[in-house]
Design a protein that fits this description.
With 374 residues, the chain is an alpha/beta fold. The protein has 11 helices and 11 strands. Strand 10, helix 11 and strand 11 form a beta-alpha-beta unit. It is globular and about 65 Å long. The two termini are 23 Å apart.
């Protein structure tokens, strides 16, 4: 809880901070990277910095947390998501002090606030930081070296990598989780990208990569069978919940990767649950795991698949042409829904589900989470 005086000052200044927080975030990152350029080269995603999504996510998360404090509702789902991402890329407790220094300086420069207001927002920051540090303390950390033992071309721009630890057993993991891959680049930078597990065996992990950006392209072109990769321990909070109620998996594009892993888990355990699998893609040839989706659903006791293509090749049902539309699918209100894909898809699917009375909705997004924070 915020102290009474800080709560009063934060509530009074929240509209002004909210209106300027995008500028504050950009100022913050510029300051921090000027003093610590290694963070941009070896920790933060350079692409997300360039397109502004990282600043947008930071801005939104701070505003959401401050609003929650004032309303007495801590946004735990958002905090858990951030904590898992932080641990996956190797954020340490000491780095929160670095962030605090430059964030407070940015707020002071953009808004020219009084020392009292700055102290109130500092209190907000440390309440959020201490909560994250506490969560991260109990999550699996560390990186291990893996050897690529197989790779498969799923589509023209998607490759699946099967990797086995060079030493020791495969770490504990759950369908729906992701790993971070540490990739050295030609300019000497080491960038980190996260990829959902698309499958697993007792002695190997499987993840699938769409060619999109400098890191994914590097993996496509320079990670042959026999090469080694440095991977984080599997993490992520969007995993299959136990129960006997209906389950919905809805994805778009490469967002099918965690969904296919969770679907395979239900098949492997002989689940009797009603399962609704929905996927949207450009066409049949750009759809990763197209055959696997049909095969897995066919093995379920009560499974159905609904596939939408924006521009299908050949004959295709008119009602399944275009973007994913959950409105025409019978989805019971007690369904547990899992979503994965780009932000516009997540927003549209989530709105349709809530409109249909489905409230148990979990989602994974690739890149900064501008959905929950926005």
């Amino acid at each position: 809880m915020l102290s009474p005086k800080s709560a009063e000052l934060v509530e009074a200044t929240l509209p002004a901070v909210g209106a300027a927080i995008g500028e504050i975030s950009r100022n913050f990152y510029a300051r921090m990277f000027e003093e610590h350029p290694i963070l941009l080269r070896h920790l933060f995603n350079r692409g997300n910095q360039a397109n502004g999504t990282q600043a947008q996510a930071l801005a939104g998360s701070v505003a959401v947390f401050a609003t929650g404090l004032l309303e007495g509702k801590r946004p735990d789902a958002m905090l858990r998501r951030i904590a898992h991402k932080h641990v996956s890329v190797g954020v340490t407790a000491g780095q929160y002090t670095v962030v605090h220094k430059h964030l407070m300086a940015a707020i002071g420069e953009v808004l020219d606030v009084t020392p009292e207001i700055a102290a109130a927002w500092s209190e907000v920051y440390w309440l959020m930081a201490d909560t994250l540090i506490g969560m991260e303390r109990f999550l699996p950390r560390g990186q291990d070296e893996y050897r690529v033992i197989a790779r498969f071309q799923e589509t023209d721009d998607v490759v699946t990598f099967v990797v086995r630890p060079v030493r020791g057993p495969v770490p504990l993991n759950k369908p729906g989780q992701y790993i971070s891959v540490h990739v050295p680049l030609p300019d000497g930078a080491r960038q980190i990208r996260q990829y959902s597990l698309s499958g697993r065996t007792d002695d190997a992990l499987q993840f699938s990569v769409k060619r999109d950006g400098e890191v994914s392209t590097r993996l496509h072109d320079h990670a042959p069978v026999g090469s080694t990769l440095k991977l984080s321990r599997p993490t992520g909070d969007v995993t299959l919940r136990p129960g006997d109620n209906p389950v919905l998996f809805a994805s778009a594009g490469i967002g099918c990767t965690p969904m296919i892993a969770m679907l395979a888990e239900l098949v492997a355990t002989g689940s009797p649950r009603r399962v609704i699998a929905v996927h949207g893609d450009h066409d049949q040839f750009s759809h990763p795991f197209r055959a696997e989706l049909a095969q897995l659903v066919a093995k379920l006791e009560d499974g159905q698949a609904h596939v939408f293509y924006e521009r299908p090749v050949g004959e295709w049902p008119a009602e399944r042409t275009g973007y994913v539309d959950l409105g025409g699918i019978d989805i019971p209100a007690d369904t547990t829904a899992y979503l994965c894909g780009p932000a516009p898809f997540l927003r549209a699917a989530r709105a349709q589900l809530i409109g249909a009375g489905v409230t148990d909705v979990h989602y994974e997004i690739f890149g900064p989470d501008v959905t929950s924070a926005g």
